[in-house]
Specification:
The protein is an all-alpha fold and 223 residues long. The protein has 2 domains: 11-40 and 154-222, Orthogonal Bundle (Endonuclease Iii, domain 2), CATH 1.10.1670; 48-147, Hypothetical protein, domain 2 (Endonuclease III, domain 1). It has helices at 2-11, 13-16, 21-35, 48-57, 63-76, 80-83, 88-95, 101-119, 127-131, 138-147, 158-166, 175-185, 191-204, 219-222. The two termini are 24 Å apart.
C-alpha cells in the first residue's frame, strides 16, 4: 500500500515542483497520515502525573533513555505523595542518565509538593496552571494539554522546528514563530496527531544530519 502511494506520487512529481504553501500543507498532511495513521506516544506512562514527569525528563534527552529511567523512578515514586517522600538527592541519583539531573530533580520534587498543596495531587488542565509548575515550560504544558487532556495544542520540538523550516512553512527564526505558523497553517483538528507524526517523520526520514533530500518522501516532492 505504501509503495503504491509513493509510486502514484512519483508519477505526479511535476505537479509538486513549485507547489504553493497551501499545496505543501495538504501534501504534508496526506503523506504523514499515510505513513503514521496512528502515531503512539513515545513515552511510557500510566497516568497524567507519570506522563508529566516523563515529559519533563525528556528535555534534552531521548525518549528511549527516558523510558529506561522512569521504571526505576516510578517503582519508588509514581505519585506526588510518594515522590515528596524522596529527597531531591535521591531523585537526582535515579534520573542522572537523563541529563540536567540537578535542575530536573528539584523541579520534580517541587512540582510534586505544589500538586499536593494546591491541586489535591492531580495534574491541572490549563496552560496557565501547568506553566506555573517548576520545570514546566510552554512546550511541556502543550504536550500535557494535547496528549493527556485532548485539548488543541501544537508542541514544537527540534524535529518540528527543523522540518517546518525545510518545508518552507516557517522562517525558522524561533520556536515561538514556528508554533504560530503551524497553528495558522494546519487545521486545528489535526494538531494533536500531527505533531507526533512530524516527530516520527523527522526521526525516520528527515534527520538533522545526513539528510538526503532525494530519498525523503516529502522534501523530494515539494521542491
Amino acid at each position: 500500500m505504501l509503495e503504491d502511494f509513493f509510486c502514484f506520487r512519483l508519477k505526479r512529481a511535476s505537479i509538486f515542483v513549485g507547489m504553493n504553501k497551501k499545496e505543501r500543507v495538504d501534501f504534508v498532511i496526506e503523506t504523514l497520515e499515510t505513513l503514521y495513521p496512528n502515531p503512539a506516544i513515545p513515552l511510557d506512562f500510566k497516568d497524567p502525573y507519570t506522563f508529566l514527569i516523563a515529559v519533563l525528563l525528556s528535555a534534552q534527552c531521548t525518549d528511549k533513555r527516558v523510558n529506561l529511567v522512569t521504571p526505576h523512578l516510578f517503582r519508588k515514586a509514581d505519585s506526588p505523595k510518594r515522590m515528596v517522600k524522596l529527597t531531591v538527592e535521591e531523585i537526582e541519583d535515579i534520573i542522572r542518565p537523563c541529563g540536567l539531573a540537578p535542575a530536573k530533580s528539584k523541579a520534580i520534587h517541587g512540582l510534586s509538593e505544589i500538586l499536593l498543596e494546591k491541586y489535591k495531587g492531580e495534574v491541572p488542565d490549563s496552560f496557565e496552571t501547568l506553566e506555573e509548575l517548576p520545570g514546566v515550560g510552554h512546550k511541556t504544558a502543550s504536550v500535557i494539554m494535547t496528549q493527556v487532556f485532548g485539548k488543541p495544542a501544537f508542541p514544537v520540538d527540534t524535529h518540528i522546528h527543523r522540518l517546518m523550516h525545510r518545508w518552507r512553512l516557517s522562517n525558522g527564526k524561533s520556536v515561538e514563530q514556528t508554533e504560530r505558523d503551524a497553528k495558522r497553517l494546519f487545521p486545528q483538528s489535526t494538531w494533536n496527531k500531527l505533531h507526533l507524526q512530524i516527530i516520527y517523520f523527522g526521526r525516520e526520514y528527515c534527520p538533522a544530519r545526513g539528510h538526503r533530500k532525494e530519498l525523503c518522501p516529502i522534501c523530494s516532492k515539494i521542491g
